[in-house]
Amino acid sequence: MTIQVTQAKSSELAQELGNTRPAFAAYNSREDLHEHDPNALLLFVAELRLGVDDVDVFASNALTDHSNDKKCDMVAVTPERNKVVVAQGYEALTEKRSAPANKASDLNTAVSWLLTGPLDSVPEKLRSAAIEVRAALDDKAVSQFEIWYVHNLPASENVQGELEQSVRTAEAALSRYFPDADVDVRALEIGRDQIDTDYQESNAPILVSESRTFLVPGGFEVKGTGWKAYSTAIRLSDIRDMWANHGVSLMSPNVRDYLGVVKKSGNINHGIKETAKSEPTNFAIYNNGITILTNDYVVDEGSNTIIANGIGIVNGGQTTGAVGEMPAGDVSGLEDARVMARFVTCTDPTVLENIVRYNNTQNKVEATDFRSGDAVQTQLRQQFSRIPDAEYRGGRRGGSTDAISRSRSLISDSSVAQSLAAFHGQPNLAYNETRTIWESDAVYSSIFREGLNANHVVFTQSLLVAVDETKRAIAKIPESQRTGTQKKHANFFSTRGSNHLVVAAVASCLETIVGRPIPDRYSLRFKGNVSPAQAATEWKPLLEVVLAFTGQLADATDQGLKSRDKVTVAISNFTSMVEAVRSANTSPFNTFADGVEWDGK
User: Fold this and answer.
1) What's the pTM value of the predicted model, to 2 decimals?
2) Which of 8, 68, 216, 490 is deepest in the core (most CB within 10 A)?
């Protein structure tokens, strides 16, 4: 059981809710986050800790805030399915000594419902989250279960006590209902101190300031303008020692941090541990090595040492974490085991940012990086440069300022991949297996087809945006003021993957909508060079009509879109309903059709 609490200093109680801090200055400037109030702060923390690259898409599926949410504001399952986060948020409007402890105790209730309640009795808003979490646990994919209480006040001992109970509840439930799962449970009170720390870590290249001496077998140095690098090999025992003292702070320049170990043979970190245990003397030739960013280093060839002033693992975070967390009984051979290491010092801020960016491309979790240079992504970036109010990076990483002021015109890689997959008939792939789109050559080439045009990407991605904005608009209507139709829509959209299913359903009946055959749906686009925001506006009148038929899609969402047969039947039923009303209500259909074009029209 692990509880992490950041204690507040008494002098900080006089500060005005921490808003003078860099983290909260950045947070307050993020209009895209505040569209999700009262959960904006919770999403800001998720962005910092989980690496969320599209807040709107993430919020659409992860937020569970509802009058009957069973004390739970967010349930997130990471794309790798190795981590589950159950969270409650609170944002005070006036200064207080601490956050309400009863909000922390609410998490105990949330955990119980999520893990133990009979699914038919779990509230609809939480039910699809419970299904997804339990499926990941049944598959033994989950290695970390985190319980967050996020707020903008100082941390407190009272909250810590309540969180301890939620951990005990989670551990008991996992032991009883998922006995084969090997899951580490921890609770974190993420108050304003911790948020500030998380923010600084996301932007500071080197957090560990100590000087450390490494015994090395020799090496060589390469220099450039404003930088120098020394290549050598260091002992794995040094890595374990650094990890014991500093943990993930070592990886402040590493955008992924440590992903943890899922006990599957194909998992990178599990494989690192196995290599270090079974073949320690061969580790240096099996492993890709690590890159250590330092403020400065000094090589002493006489003593075969290198002294590093400041340590930040910019590449090799998975190696560092995996070796650092090896059980004591498995490390007997590490004194003689080494890993190739490159020590880098840089004084040029631009080059430094690029070092951090380009050295974080080794792990398959960031498979978008490997696609950034291919012909399709290069062409899309060129085409997007000519589309108004649109920015697409096509697999290229953003800078360290993304969490400070994310551009509202930025179209994320994940939303493009998801919208294309869903639009072209694979909503399950869009929701459950986004990373497969980037990792699998066959899947990638089927979604990002040769000749794919940026105008078509705008067409499909704007449909997903329009669906998400419609979902948000319905959610903001107080439950007591919703019409019967709005309540049905709200219930449907409370299920996970519902937004991707709607995209697939609308796309499937576009020939009916426009009243003409479409030989190649990949050529569909709006007339003119419209911006993504304008494109989303073009979809909304049509959505107002066809959302009346979402009841036909409900059965396909009960398993998170994993039943392909159910998805196929649901979309077919939806299409039949649209066909039935097309001739009776021609105006919205014809208006939309007039603004669309495609090859061969």
Assistant:
1) 0.70
2) 216
